[in-house]
Design goal:
By secondary structure, the chain is mostly helical. It is 63% helix and 0% strand. It has helices at residues 2-18, 20-23, 34-38, 40-52.
Length: 62
Amino acid sequence: MVSIDQCVVRKAFETFSAKKNIVSGWQFSIYLSGQSLRDETFMKFVIDTFQADRCFARADML
């Protein structure tokens, strides 16, 4: 399940970044599994992915 959530997060970030002119100012939620939220490496993955392409969101929104 963690790998599925990673794929969803990665694809969402890629899509939001590619459409930043359209989604500017919008807020999004991504539903994640409890398994991913308990996984110690998952949050690091989210932060690393966010930092690699932070042009679409503010850090305080994470």
